[in-house]
Amino acid sequence: MIERLASFCHRRRWTVLCAWLVVVIGVSVLAGAAGSHDADGGRLDGTDSDTAQQIVHREFPADDGSEATIVFYAADGVAAHRAAIDRFVASAGSLHGVTGMTTPFERPDHISADGRTAYVPVTLDQDLAGSADDPTGALRERAAAMQGQGVETELLGDAFTDGTVPASEAFGLLAAVFILLLAFGSIVAMGLPIVTAIAGIVTGLGGVTLWSHVVQTPSFTTQVASMIGIGVGIDYALFIVTRYRAARHRGLNGEQAIAEAFGTAGRAVTFAGCTVVISLLGMLLMGMSFFHGLAIGTSSAVLVAVIAAITLLPALLGFAGDRIDRLSLHRRHQPTGRETAWHRWSRLVQRNPKRFAVGGLVVLLAAATPVLSMRLATADPGNDP
Fold this sequence. Notes:
The chain has about 375 residues and is mostly helical. Helix content is about 60%, strand content about 5%. A 4-stranded antiparallel sheet has the order 2-3-1-4, with helices on one face.
């Protein structure tokens, strides 16, 4: 069945390509229009931490805010700048949305033993975050003015953290391009898995956005779906393209090579993808609602990657045709029947299985050694730059 579907897509390549363009653009437009509806505010319904947060909100409304810290440092001692620090605390404490500020000179435990560093805890109204009345901007300005008075200041806490999740997907794609160029030695052959993966991940991420309106979806689902989707998308296409090229090098025509590649690698890719989807959907059994969106979003991204591999890729292979090895970066493909370096390596491993098994195990254990000194803890401002 897989090979028949691939052969159909190979023959109707223009139709398949246009259909995929409509799907990619359509899902992207729908996702952009609908917007993301991720679970926000750090709420993870169904967890013990969420229950504790609700108790704090109900029983201690005065303390229900965003905790932040302002740190002062003076090389000649903060006591020499007491007047300036007290003025800063009085001015900052009068801002709308700021509560709980007390000068550090009333709390000796807030001053370091050498007298050079002091800190002030601050409670900010969470309801004002991101609004026009958000006091963080004014606090930054007042803190910056302290620099001219001989006092260094730092603002700590989530309210003052500008860090965002890095766009690691771009680095992943660049690394994949480099590795595929080394593996295939052809820009055309390299481009097919990349194009297939991009089409799959764009559609998959659009699906994650749409899913967020149906089930509770944590904000980090996009990053997880990107990581898994790009990985399996490139891997599945790479597997198939490798089989296709090998068949063409043996003299098979396009239709025959498609049938062989998808009758072997295509079946393996479909089975592997379904296994990953089922594994990810296993998160639905954990009994926490915020895992539902993560499970459905990531599994749907993998499913789209599989569909792209068995429909879009054969169409792209049809367009490549005999030009699959064009734009080669190194020597041409070795003649059929000549043993490659990888074949020779596999023979060597097979002749010495025990030695390589023990050697491989030693390498893995050495690589895993840092786990023994791993320190686990809850992230706090000490993790910030």
